[in-house]
Design brief:
Blueprint lengths: L5 H46 L5 H5 L1 H13 L5 H13 L12 H8 L4 H14 L3 H9 L2 H6 L4 H7 L17 E2 L13 H10 L1 H8 L3 E12 L2 E11 L4 E11 L2 H18 L8 E8 L2 H7 L7 E7 L5 H20 L1
Helix pairs in contact: 1-4, 10-11
Protein name: DUF1016 domain-containing protein
Organism: Oceanisphaera marina
InterPro entries: PD-DEXK-like_domain (IPR053148), tRNA_endonuc-like_dom_sf (IPR011856), YhcG_C (IPR009362), YhcG_N (IPR041527)
Length: about 350
């Protein structure tokens, strides 16, 4: 029998490593599923005890405090009053256990339980599952008000539909939102910076940038060179969208968008459609990201142009959540009023 070669040995190491990683992943998933199930049951026990009237008025006020004290003596610090409150809330919001996803960890659910609005919570549950967000990614999307920013530019039916969709992007128009938030760049609002510096900062934080853009984006390149009649042009950022099956071209502007910026993006889109697309690709999408946006100029400058060309705003700080909520509530009330007339 011949001696194993170095190559055979390396294959053995790879097989063992792969088996260990897969087993570790399955074990972590099993542990997470077990924790979610256990905490749901604990919440069920508490709620059923309360509903059966076994907690007198005086004792009922102290129920969680008493449980916390006694269970800590048996099992340790995992039974704080705040944790018991979460278990109880988790059960109340998911009394049909069949609706509880085992693909979300308890840490995911802790973040989701902080959302009081049912439609908003449903939206984040579905998007976390669809995009396979980590807990950190879920926190970032919540903190940046993703649901509120998307809903702010929708009508009532579309706002409600957001909570029931399994993917953020199904058609070109879905890449639009009220604004993009680049707070992860840590660029002070008052600081002067160039478009190239903004582009470089986004590329250094590509993971967060892709998360902000949404599901399905893959990075192709920056300063993507195209040549027309011996004249060279460069698209700031080029992506490919796996769901829409098309290139997404992004140009960055640190000031107001001018009409010639829109014409230039339209030219880029025409070039990619003719020269870069292959069989099966859909027409490209063009996005001009600017700090400010003159709505009237954009409306006139894009008149008759490709409907896949968008001018969107970006901001360097987190949006005012309460202001967005008021805007959405006003939209719902206004459309409800118009419906009643």
């Amino acid at each position: 029998m011949s001696k194993p070669t170095t190559q055979h040995y390396e294959k053995l190491v790879d097989k063992i490593s792969s088996s260990f990683s897969q087993g570790q992943s399955k074990t972590i998933k099993a542990i997470n599923a077990g924790l979610v199930s256990t905490y749901w049951q604990i919440g069920q026990h508490i709620v059923e005890f309360e509903q059966q009237g076994q907690a007198s008025a005086a004792y009922g006020k102290q129920l969680l405090a008493n449980l916390s004290r006694d269970l800590k003596l048996k099992h340790g610090k995992g039974f704080s009053v705040s944790n018991l409150q979460r278990f109880r809330q988790f059960y109340l919001l998911n009394q049909n256990y069949a609706t509880v996803s085992h693909n979300l960890s308890w840490s995911h659910y802790v973040e989701l339980l902080k959302i009081s609005d049912e439609a908003e919570r449903s939206f984040y549950i579905k998007q976390t599952l669809a995009a396979n967000w980590s807990v950190r990614e879920l926190q970032r999307q919540k903190d940046s008000g993703l649901f509120l920013r998307l809903a702010a530019s929708k009508n009532k039916a579309e706002i409600l539909e957001l909570a029931n969709r399994n993917a953020l992007i199904t058609k070109p128009e879905d890449v639009q939102r009220d604004s993009y938030v680049f707070e992860f760049l840590n660029l002070p609002e008052q600081e002067h910076y160039s478009e190239r510096e903004l582009e470089s900062a986004l590329c250094r934080h590509l993971e967060q940038f892709l998360l902000e853009l949404g599901k399905g984006f893959t990075f192709v390149g920056r300063q993507y060179r195209i040549t027309l009649n011996n004249t060279h042009y460069k698209v700031d950022l080029v992506f490919y969208h796996r769901i829409l099956r098309c290139f997404v071209l992004i140009d960055l502007k640190i000031n107001d968008v001018k009409h010639h910026d829109i014409g230039q993006m339209n030219m880029y889109m025409g070039y990619f459609a003719a020269e870069e697309n292959v069989e099966g690709d859909n027409p490209p999408i063009g996005i001009i990201l600017s700090k400010d946006k003159d709505e009237l100029l954009v409306e006139y400058a894009t008149y008759g142009m490709d409907a896949r060309l968008f001018v969107q705003k970006y901001q360097l700080y987190l949006p005012d959540e309460e202001e967005l909520r008021r805007e959405i509530e006003a939209t719902l009330v206004e459309q409800e009023h118009n419906h009643d007339l």
